[in-house]
Structures are given as structure tokens and as C-alpha cells.
Predict the structure.
Amino acid sequence: MNLEHLSKTELAELIQQNQSAPDARLLDQARAKKEHYYGKRIFVRGLIEFTNYCKNNCYYCGIRAGNTAAHRYRLAKEEVLGCCETGWQLGFRTFVLQGGEDVYFTDAILADMVYSIKERYPDCAVTLSVGERSRESYRLLKEAGADRYLLRHETADDAHYQALHPASMSLAHRKECLYALKELGYQVGAGFMVGSPHQTPETLAEDLLFLKELQPQMVGIGPFIPHKDTPFHAEPQGTLGLTLTMLAMTRLLLPQVLLPATTALGTIAPDGRELGFSAGANVVMPNLSPISVRADYTLYDNKICLGDEAAEGLQSLRQRIEAAGLEMDLSRGDCVGFEK
Ligand code: SAH
């Protein structure tokens, strides 16, 4: 099956047909594509959630500015470096620094943090995931040593984007950021939630067409899960089956992409990660944040952050990966074909 030349209508039809789960053909081809480029390797990244302060008010997100019930925290540079040390000792060679859009982290403060991590761990990749910033800011952070940047586009349909975000945010600006990051030489990650309110097979088809145009090195896809203190608290969560379909289709469209089996996928099903691997995923991002703050980084209800989802549980994660017939790979794991 070649998705490359399908129109939006044809993609939407395929999504519709595989709404409850990807069919065997889709799964087989997605897995074959992944194995062609990456073999049985599953790459592991250490996720450090270093601030849950956020100036934005995305309707779906538990750390939105308007959620006064959220208990806010931000980690000091030394604490972040402590997480990296723990991770490095465990064997991690990629650190992902994720947070809300926290105005405390000016370019100077954030660049200093990135620089210090790269100075101590020059053999490690640093991935940032801190939302929309100016091109100049992205440039400074790249210069400080950041290698990769995750910024999900959330939805590539304008009207849908406006239904998920307040008027102060726009799809056009989000896309501008992604293109700027790409041009500056970052390995870039886009992505979206599956089952977010007002999503349709057509908006999902638009997401795939946007990915095809952007050609990101990474794509984050996970189910939408409601959070009790957000405007979307009563909305239904995204399904496992449709999430797996979108993973498989993304793998077919972007064969070399680095595709995580996300925490949200692991949250809605106990075997979510394994099913994600079988649909073409090849990355996991165990939680490396200090245990004391993990419960406060709640984007959605019931988020898993202990056991196999935690950096401390690396051995049990390894066993699960091996039980699935795959291999855990702790190397930097850059995207194949990416020219540094
Ligand atoms: N502030 C950063 C990081 C956002 S959190 C940024 O703007 O990129 C990372 C991702 O979590 C978001 O991009 C979003 O797709 C996802 N997310 C947020 N709320 C969610 C929810 N309720 N259910 C599932 N995923 C959610």
C-alpha cells in the first residue's frame, strides 16, 4: 500500500475503514517499513518535565494557565542536571526537556541550561519541547547545543485548531515555528492527539498531508485523554484502535520517522506500548523527572509515570521490549538519513 499519492479524500476513507483498528495489511506493512530502516531497535529517551507553569490556555491541557487547581513547580538548573546524571548512569543518551510555556525560562536561562547539559554530557542529544518561541530564541538554543525540538502541530485543520485553542493561538504561527526549527537545523518533531474533540477522519487526513509536506524526523501521536479541570473534562477519550491506525499510516508515509509509543498510549491500555511497537512505533520516553514532581505534571487524568514508565524501571522496560521480540537501544538514536 502506497499512501504517498493518496488524496485527502482517499486518506480520510482509509482512516474511516480502519477506525476501530488497523487491519492486518496496514500493520504488516508498517512493521516491515520500520524494520527495514531500524531493525528491531526501540530507542529510549529520558523525559525531564522541568516546569508545569504555562502562559497558554489550550482547552485540552491540564497545565493550562486557567487551571488554578494545578500545583505549579519549576526545577532549578542543578535539579535538571541531577536528572541528567541519573539518566546518564542508567545509560540514557538522549534527554528530552519538556515544559509548559513558562516565561521564567528566558532565552538566557534556557540556553545556559542546555549549554551546561551538553558541556557535561557531550555524547548525549538534547531535545527541547517548550512550545512556541521566536526564531531568534530557537537560533540561540540551537547554538547552545540543542539537537532536536518537539512541537506537535496538534491539528492541521484551521477550524479544528481554533476549537482546541483560545483565539490568541493560531495554526499558522505553530507551522511557522516548525518551519523555522527545521531551517535552523534541528531534528524536528510534529504530531497530534487522536480523538480530540471535533476531530474527524478529514482533519486526520489533513494531519497526514501536513506531515508529508513538513517531513519531520519525529512524530508524536497519542490518544486525547480528558483532564478533570479543563473545559474538555467531559469529552470522551481517544481510542486505542484509531491511535494505532494513525501510527501505522504515519510510518507508511514517513518510513524513516522516529515514532514514540507515547505515555498517553500506555495510559489508556496496559499493553499500549507493545501494540504501538507492532503498529510501527520505535521510541519510548520513560520519565526521568524527580519523583516528587511527577504527579504535578498532569496533562491528562491517570497519567502513568511509575513502574515501566519510569527511568528507574528501565530493566523491566527492557524485559517488556525483549518479550515483544525487540531490542532496547540506549544510543542517541538519530533519525536515519538526517545530515547533522
Ligand atoms: N508546551 C509544550 C509541551 C506541551 S505538552 C508545547 O506546546 O509543545 C506535550 C503534548 O501533550 C502536547 O503537545 C499535547 O499534544 C499533549 N497533550 C496535552 N494535553 C493532553 C491531553 N489532555 N491528552 C492527551 N495529550 C495531551
In short: The radius of gyration is 18 Å. Residues 60-61, 98, 100-101, 129-131, 151-152, 154, 193, 222, 224-225, 227, 264, 299-300 surround S-adenosyl-L-homocysteine (CB under 6 Å).
